[in-house]
User: What shape does this take?
Amino acid sequence: MTEAPRVDTAQLLELLSVSLGVYYGDFTVAAASENLTASQGRALTVLRRGPAAMRALAETMTCDASNMTGIIDRLEKRGLVRREADPADRRVKNVILTAEGERVTDAIRAKMHLTQEGLAGLDAEGRDTLYTLLERVFLTTPATA
Assistant: This one.
C-alpha cells in the first residue's frame, strides 16, 4: 500500500487562504444582516471574549486608534458597547459589550451558515482535533531560543 502524499506548507497556506476567504465572506454577510460593517462585527466578536482597552482593541484588530474610535462610537450609539474608565488608570477607557451587543454577536455567529454547516460536518473527534490544531498554530506563542 502506498503512503498518501505529504502536504507541504504552500498547500496549507493556499487552503488556509481559501478557508479564511469563505469564513470572512460568511461573517461579512452575517454582520451586514445586523446592519453592521465587518469591522464593527469583528470588534463585537473580539469584545465577546471580554472587555478591552481601546488601544488593545486597535492592536488586536490591526487598525489605527482613530479608526477604532470611530468604530466604537458607532457601536456605542447603537447600544452595543459602552466605555468605562479603567479602575487602575482612569485615563484608559475600556470597551465593554452590552447585553444587546452579546445578542447581536450571537446572532451573527448563528447566521454564518456556510461556516456552521462546515463545522457541523465534523464529528466530536474532528472538532477536538481542529480546535487543538488551530490553537497550536495561532494561539501558542513560540518558545524563544
